[in-house]
Design brief:
Alpha-Beta Plaits, elongated, Dihydrodipicolinate Reductase, domain 2, binds L-homoserine, NAD(P)-bd_dom_sf, Rossmann fold, six-stranded parallel beta sheet, amino-acid biosynthesis, binds NADPH dihydro-nicotinamide-adenine-dinucleotide phosphate, 14 helices
Length: about 450
């Protein structure tokens, strides 16, 4: 075997991802050495609880609760603890100690990324974070390196495995939200606090990271519009299916150009309707998919495992090999750039299509009233479907397109209206929905979902 220089690697965290990283480092040491041009010595693994159960059979003597001491003298520090503290302090400590850092911690980077990257710049260290967005899928390197010479216009994708797993199982099997979330936790997909997944925080952190790289702009987390999937229920999934859609939690990052040529960006995460024929509709389980549209390259699609211990370990180890090669060869990588610093617009500026579901009085003229309110609000109707949901005696439930339900009695019962709109401005849409809710003919606004993917 080649006589390689030895690099000392410190691992912080041995949970779903960390235990697999340690296992692969130990199992494939010789192969990794050939790729890295250095022997990677796993110097220790810092955890909270020395007696904790591990997903891999790892030498007990490697474990310590003293992360701070482990970091000193390390060439590469892999941070897989998650959360903000003590991860932030330990990452800054690693950088100050002269180590390169590999992390999968999107929460840390989306909130303290500038601090971490500046600290690294000051001492000439590198921070690698391929696993921080979309698990095993290579998306950070393509944005940071491969597309450095292009201009990204739009990124749209599924970037959270847990929520895709939940929505997919609800859609394909009629599974219960809470049951599937528990399974996602067991499978190691979910964050330590799964609220981060189901309320869209994790996807928003990833969207902020992707948008920052794509648009060469610092994107603070509070500039990302975020909605989670906790309001999505079986009825919404069924209604989406009936209309030819599937519900997916999407991250959308867009470069917007005004008539005067000035540019801004929109970064948002929300559950949206995607046509069943769209490639995103076939992203099942905990998989992720990211579409990138760039001015010169055109459309690119990245697909694969978005979560999972061993899958994510692949992305982490790729970064470890890159860090090792740089340590041996020297020089700097392609760094982050915030040159453009584009302003982020609020959600009200976004233009997209919508599906509005209303429960209305089933009376003559109601459809005309609803259409009038939409028209006044500059929201143009593309499709309407009406279903009688509570008919009077003798009136059968029926479905019709753009007609009052046949067979219902004047003044009787309730109907469900599902309205598809043409593209509208979000602010116009939300004001219009408020007017509909207050109109007296609408009993209940059941849901308002954006339609994406066209
Ligand atoms: P886990 O919660 O499974 O593991 C966290 C590990 O960090 C545990 O070993 C824990 O120790 C250790 N740890 C936590 N706090 C401390 C502390 N204060 N001091 C020392 N050790 C500590 O997390 P995951 O492996 O799932 O995730 C790790 C990171 O990877 C997170 O940033 C996550 O967002 C990211 N990620 C996760 C993916 C996944 O599919 N799971 C995919 C992509 C990214 P102990 O075991 O003793 O409690
Ligand atoms: N909890 C995250 C997810 C892990 O489900 O996507 C991968 O980042």
């Amino acid at each position: 075997m080649t006589d390689y220089r030895t690099l000392r690697v410190a691992l912080l965290g041995a949970g779903a991802v960390g235990s697999q990283v340690a296992d692969l480092l130990l199992k494939h040491g010789d192969e990794l050495a050939d790729r890295a041009g250095a022997k990677l010595e796993l110097a220790g693994i810092a955890v909270r609880n020395l007696d904790g159960k591990r997903d891999a059979d790892l030498p007990r003597e490697l474990f310590t609760t003293d992360a701070e001491t482990l970091i000193v003298g390390s060439d590469i520090v892999i941070e897989l603890m998650g959360g903000i503290e003590p991860a932030r302090t330990q990452v800054l400590h690693a950088i100050a100690s002269g180590a390169d850092v590999v992390t999968a911690n999107k929460a840390l980077l989306a909130t303290h990324g500038s601090e971490v990257f500046e600290a690294a710049d000051q001492v000439g260290a590198e921070v690698y974070y391929e696993a921080a967005a979309a698990g095993a899928i290579p998306i950070i390197r393509p944005l940071r390196d491969s597309l450095a010479g292009d201009r990204v216009v739009r990124i749209m994708g599924i970037v959270n495995g847990t929520t895709n797993y939940i929505l997919d199982r609800m859609d394909t099997e009629g599974a219960d939200f809470a049951d599937v979330l528990a399974q996602a936790q067991e499978l190691g997909y979910a964050e330590a606090d799964p609220t981060a997944d189901v309320e869209g925080y994790d996807a928003a952190q990833k969207a902020a990271i992707l948008a920052s790289l794509a648009f060469h702009t610092t994107v603070p987390l509070d500039a990302v519009h975020r909605e989670g999937i906790t309001s999505v229920d079986a009825a919404m999934i069924e209604s989406a299916r009936h209309a030819g859609y599937v519900i997916k939690l999407l991250a959308v990052c867009e470069r917007l150009t005004a008539d005067d040529g000035s540019e801004s960006i929109s970064v948002r995460v929300y559950p949206a309707l995607v046509e069943r024929t769209h490639p995103l509709a076939s992203v099942h389980g905990a998989n992720n998919a990211v579409f990138v549209q760039a001015e010169a390259a055109g459309d690119l699609m990245f697909y694969g495992a978005g979560a999972g211990g061993v899958q994510t370990a692949s992305a982490v180890l790729g970064d470890v090999v890159s860090a090792a090669r740089r340590h041996i060869a020297g020089g700097v990588g392609v760094g982050e750039s915030t040159r453009a610093n584009l302003p982020a617009v609020p959600i009200g500026h976004v233009i997209t299509r919508y599906q509005i579901t209303l429960e209305v009085d089933d009376q003559p003229g109601v459809l005309a009233t609803v259409a009038g309110i939409l028209s006044e609000g500059r929201v143009s109707i593309a499709t309407v479907e009406q279903t009688v949901i509570e008919a009077s005696v003798g009136a059968a439930a029926s479905t019709g397109s753009a007609t009052e339900a046949e067979g219902s009695t004047i003044g009787a019962g309730s109907a469900r209206l599902v309205i598809g709109t043409h593209k509208a401005r979000e602010q116009d849409l939300s004001e219009t929905v408020e007017r509909l809710a207050a109109s007296g003919v609408v009993e209940r606004v059941v849901s308002v979902l954006r339609v994406e993917g066209n």
